[in-house]
Design brief:
The structure holds 2 protein chains of 2 kinds. Chain A is α+β, with helices and mostly antiparallel strands. Helices cover 47% and strands 14% of the residues of chain A. Chain A has a single domain, classed as Orthogonal Bundle (Cytochrome-c3 Hydrogenase, chain B), CATH 1.10.645. In chain A, strand 4 and strand 5 form a beta hairpin. Helix content of chain B is 17%, strand content 18%. Chain B starts with 6 loop residues before the first helix and ends in a 10-residue tail after the last strand. Classes of the chains: A alpha+beta, B alpha+beta.
Chain lengths: 359, 120
């Protein structure tokens, strides 16, 4: 046994977009143990629900995270709608699905860029973010915001997308798909990329299950778990099958996310062809009373929204269980036995979103 | 060769020129829905205070006695909730952003006089 050294990793580190700290216990260059420390960007957003009324909180919920902002708003709205027994119009369900899938697309593109940056492939990083820019432009045109959209509301959505814009989105998505195919060839087939990802941080199916991994992390280990298959919003009307890989390593996690991006484009196309005419919102009156659990699939995995209302306009409690929080135990397990140089890649492959985790 | 898979994209980007816009000489086009800043048609305002009560960040202040409506620009999160609840539809979301500032700025609008801007 060699000498043990503790190397602090983060909270400020070039590969980390957000602050998380890990104490890496090393034997020579091999990680023996990783001790996480979170809490650098806790903002108390769950507590804020006692100060903002349940409709104002929609805008707070969206700001939990800048990448899955739409899905946070959607999860919160769906929980309140379930408490209040509100039936959302069908068109609104489809519009929510379109925006949710566009969010998944831009989140995964951002992640691909960060991964490329993590293993030092700068031009691939720039290329991924260049593709993402087109998706952000779609958001700006349809919702008015590029990162925070403020379109999801209790009872439906606040903005409609016209037929012409939907056709335009279809056309932009074809360009995105073509460019993505070129980038995917590099992520999947390039020798240098494979050397950094293949066989690195293997998480077995049993271990992923035992540690409660969610999202692409679980799916890359062979667990077929995707909440979209339960058919919330408009997913029940779409042809959808979760993308699963059995590799369990960083390469498999990259492949699952790339597969999900093409699937997201396909789902948006299906939504555009199936979207019905009609209202986009129902008027919601009164105050909620009761409690509800809502689970939806974010880009990073399953998010759980719990809301408890007491009949006044202020809720008693909102609790968010975010996917990154669920994936941290799996990350710590994959870090054991890897070399110090692979730590940044492994941290990136869980797609960490610390803003979500700490709220 | 699998090591040269990026080369096609690289050559394309090399001869394409920059994808970015040379700001401020050329400005990026704004969309109709782009959320820039809140504007008010003060002559139509009845100072009901709905926007004040509903604003999630408390950026808007309405003083009925002075017929004054004011907004703190940096506190506003451009959610356009106020635009939705305004009964007279005198609030609008402009697609141009506010100009940069180095401190908190409260824009105040007073009815019956010319629109004026006061820095706090």
């Amino acid at each position: 046994m060699g000498n043990r050294t503790i190397v602090p990793f983060g909270p400020q580190h070039p590969v980390l977009p957000e602050p998380i700290h890990l104490d890496l216990v090393l034997e020579d260059e091999i990680v023996v143990e990783a001790i996480p420390r979170i809490g650098y960007i806790h903002r108390g957003l769950e507590k804020l629900v006692e100060k903002k009324d349940y409709q104002q909180y929609t805008y707070v919920a969206e700001r939990i995270c800048g990448i899955c902002s739409f899905m946070h708003g959607m999860g919160y709205c769906m929980a309140i709608e379930n408490i209040m027994d509100v039936k959302v119009p069908e068109r609104a369900e489809f519009l929510r699905t379109i925006w949710a899938e566009l969010s998944r697309l831009h989140s995964h593109l951002l992640w691909l860029g960060l991964l490329a940056d993590g293993f030092g492939f700068e031009s691939l990083f720039m290329q991924s973010w260049k593709i993402r820019e087109q998706v952000l432009d779609i958001f700006e045109e349809t919702t008015g915001g590029r990162v925070i959209f403020s379109v999801c509301d209790i009872g439906g959505v606040r903005k409609d997308i016209s037929f012409e814009t939907l056709e335009k989105i279809k056309k932009i998505l074809t360009d995105v798909e073509n460019e993505l195919e070129e980038a995917a060839k590099v992520f999947i087939g390039d020798t240098t990329v494979k050397l950094r990802t293949k066989g690195v941080g293997v998480l077995s199916k049993q271990l992923a299950f035992d540690l409660g991994a969610v999202g692409p992390m679980a799916r890359a280990s062979g667990i077929e778990m995707d909440l979209r298959s339960q058919g919330y919003a408009a997913y029940g009307k779409l042809d959808f099958k979760p993308i699963v890989d059995h590799g369990g390593d960083s390469y498999a996690r990259t492949a699952v996310r790339i597969g999900e991006m093409f699937q997201a484009i396909n789902l948006i196309r299906q939504c555009i062809s199936l979207i019905p005419d009609g209202d986009i919102k129902v008027k919601v009156t009164g105050n909620p009373s009761g409690e509800n659990f809502m689970r939806i699939e974010q880009p990073r995995g399953e998010v759980v929204y719990y809301a408890k209302a007491n009949g006044t306009k202020y809720l008693d409690r909102v609790r968010v269980r975010t996917p990154t929080f669920a994936n941290v135990p799996a990350l710590l397990e994959t870090l054991k036995g890897c070399s110090l140089a692979d730590v940044p890649i492994l941290i990136l492959t869980i797609d960490p979103c610390i803003s979500c985790t700490e709220r | 060769m699998s090591i040269l898979r990026m080369s096609k994209t690289l050559f394309k980007n090399l001869f394409h020129g920059p994808y970015t816009v040379l700001y401020p000489i050329k400005q990026k086009e704004k969309y109709v829905h782009t959320r820039g800043k809140i504007t008010i048609d003060i002559d139509d305002c009845i100072f009901c205070g709905m926007c004040d009560r509903r604003c999630p960040t408390g950026a808007i202040k309405v003083e009925k006695g002075n017929s004054a409506w004011s907004i703190e620009r940096l506190q506003c999160i451009q959610c356009s909730y106020c635009v939705e609840v305004c009964p007279k539809k005198c609030l609008k979301m402009d697609n141009q952003y506010t100009s940069p500032s180095n401190g908190k700025v409260r824009d105040e609008f007073i009815k019956c006089t010319n629109t004026q801007s006061l820095n706090e």
